[in-house]
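Closing statement on the zinc ion sub-project.
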Amino acid sequence: MTPAGFDLLVTNGCVLTMDYGRRTLARGAVGVAGRRIVAVGDTGEFEGARAARVIDARGGIVMPGLVNTHTHAAMTCFRGLADDLPLMTWLNDHIFPAEAALDAETVYAGALLACAEMLLSGTTTFCDMYLFEDAVARAARKAGMRAVVGEVLFDFPSPHYGSLESGFAFTEHMLEAHRDDPLVTVAVEPHSPYLCAPELLTRAGALAARYGAPLVLHLAETDGETATIRERYGRTPVGHLHALGVLAPNVLACHCVRLDAADIALLKAHDVKVSHNPESNMKLASGIAPVPALLAAGVCVGLGTDGAASNNNLDLFLEMDTAAKLHKVDRLDPTVLDAETVLRMATVDGARALGLGERTGSLEPGKRADLIVVNTRRPHLVPMHHPASQLVYAARGSDVETVVIDGRVVVQDGRILTFDVEAAMDAVNRIARRIADRR
Ligand SMILES: [Zn+2]
């Protein structure tokens, strides 16, 4: 609290702190000073407190902003471009040719539209992998979002940086440039074991370790990948990374669909984090990640949407609903992935998966003020027996009415305050027309 009081006070909400005590306050409030949360308590405790700005949650749910642990934000440009196709046809005949024509401005426009969609559905942090990631960082900063960004590295020349050598130089430049950035964290992001030679992976691991940065990659996404890696190296994708010495607590492995028991033990032993992307895995028919087994082993699992071309939305509320239900029907067990667990994956565990656990993911004094208010005065959210159940099984992104990131109100009454959403939509429509003309 500043001498003059709070900079921002959010009152009269059902506050889900998502802290380790799993504290819920039926009529709670959150006080913010500068970028940080400084007080969480019952609304009554704040009576008479001075605040520069007060947001009355009117009985809605106040909770940490959602954390999307795997996106390719600029792929909003390709939303609906090529659906219902086998993975390799989709990639080789549609996505890779479209990506070959990308430039920084296209990526910026696509990423800004993604930020609009994510903000309006309650996501405050996203982890991105793509080309021209400096443009994604620029879009995140414009939107006022917290982001982990990383330029994708692979064995062949990139439409952005050219040779792999330049890719490493660009990544290091980004790491230096964003060292003290309050919102943007830079990660080292080799695409996957099947598109990256062993030397690339070990070098990426060493660079991430040197900067204390996250190492983000796709891992064990499909049967095709596991067969390829076994053929080349005689190991599973996880076993391959282990043999290379790449598995570490700063590694975020996206998808992890095809794992065996030994893989899960290795992930746990090295405290590797996992991003679960159920809708993308379902749409591309990759399979079902063994999330209940990962959680039982004690692996930290976050939730991600993947890109808009393989989902086709970036709404984490829908992703939570899908995750919770998919594993129940897969296991024929309605008790797995209960609502509380899924909510933790989308908030506090997602933040931990990105190495941002000290900074965001729960409402606790000392953490950055990344929070959302969900309007529960909606027919589909009445009555409110269990807030976590309501959020996972009944709510949708459009129920979010207020978003605060790093202490700044970026969405108010369902409207983005940081940039012109109409212009962002128009820009992507113009890009889509160019893509259509080329085909
Ligand atoms: Zn992906």
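DSSP finds 15 helices and 18 strands in the chain. With this model delivered, the sub-project is considered complete and its resources will be redirected to Aim 3.
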